[in-house]
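Exercise: predict the fold of this chain.
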Amino acid sequence: MLTKVNTIAHFGLTSYHIEVETDIYNGLPAFIVVGLANKAVDEAKERVRSALKNANLHLPPRRITVNLAPADLPKNGSGFDLAIAVSLLASSGQIKHISPASAFYGELALDGSTRTVNGALATAQAAKMSGLSELYIAAEIAEQAALVKDITIYPVKDIGQLYQHLIGEKAIIPLRHKGISGKIHESEVDMSNIYGQAQAKRAVEIAASGNHNILLSGPPGSGKTLLAKALAGILPAPSYEEMLEITSIHSLAGVQTDNIITARPFRSPHHTASNIALIGGGQSPKPGEISLAHRGLLFLDELPEFPRHVLEVLRQPLEEGQVTVARASASYKFPARFLMVAAQNPCPCGFSGDSSTACTCSLAQINRYQTKVSGPLLDRIDLVVPVQKLKNDELLAGVAGEPSRSVRGRVEKARQIQISRFQDEPFSSNNEMTNKHIKQYCSLDSDVELLARQALNNMNLTARAYIRVLKVSRTIADMNDSEQIKSEHFSEALQYRV
């Protein structure tokens, strides 16, 4: 008898509705899985066979063909086990009825119990988008799937429990959807623990307020890393939609599978990371560090130590908020809307321009070091901030600065202005504005326009750099609760250009 059961397949970060078609007919006993399945899916035959046997369920000794339709889409992973097992039970007559509005997703152990698989949240979202109203999923990841509204989630502990539910003997109690609220990333560094550095702290606050990329440049021990970590602690908590995005990406990437991520991510790859590690890819393409930092912060310490060809792959995602990974078989798009914080020394020894410590680098060494970061990449950084070495008096005084909680309050106020401004747009920060929005929200009066004209003539700003200055000016105006960009806002934004 031919039966059809619904499940979900994941292709990069895209999810598809899949029909598991099972036919059992007379012939030499065989179990065949077709439909462009990889090794993990093909091995489901043995897992399902043992799971059914150990759950005291019957697998008829006949010819079995399982087709995963549409057959031209690649199928990866072990999440098809549950759907294949249910389709076998239905095709053999052990289950009389399966709702066409239900889907099944999970891996089976040999004893019939379910196991954790990647992509629970994305599976529930795809099932809902496909018009399905019920999802039976491994119990360990069901809480994550229950974040999605308007779909009933059934946590399945083992195939025996699912069988009893489907034949009406003992019902599985569905999970109730419960809302969650975001929380602040608990940084190990508070702004009050950073002595001095008033200008750098101001720039960090601007970066957090408008989601602007920032580069901190200064000698060793001046506090660049501390500032980057403190910045993570002054970012506002993510919205419900952002939490769903963050959790879905991390779950599909296999970074975590059962927990709900309620804080903005903080990713800090080492400078030995490859370009694939940063943007994603591999034999079965997965998101890289920039996608795992989506809606959060990406910290690149010792920026010039990264190989130049690795840094150059950041140019597209910094501009577009996503990265396209092209392979011979297909192209994958991964979201990458992150706040980039980079830190660097001014030269190989780190003391170029330092009045207290002599630099030992030659001019050629300094030029070679600084040109490791290309002009086009620097052009995409909104704020370039010199971080000076602390004076002895400042260090010995140890005067505590303003705490992160107070700074975060101002950041949240500025972000709320932007959320209200862009309420009809698919984004919520000034850094994401397009030229259309800049023309609408960054208009300049005659005084500021004169200042802008002088800056374009004297500083040789590119069109991209000028647009980024306008975005930062808009953020500074929001921080000052000003509807109009004024001369002081534009002048402050200008001083952060290279």
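Check your answer against the key: Residues 404-421 form the longest helix (18 residues).
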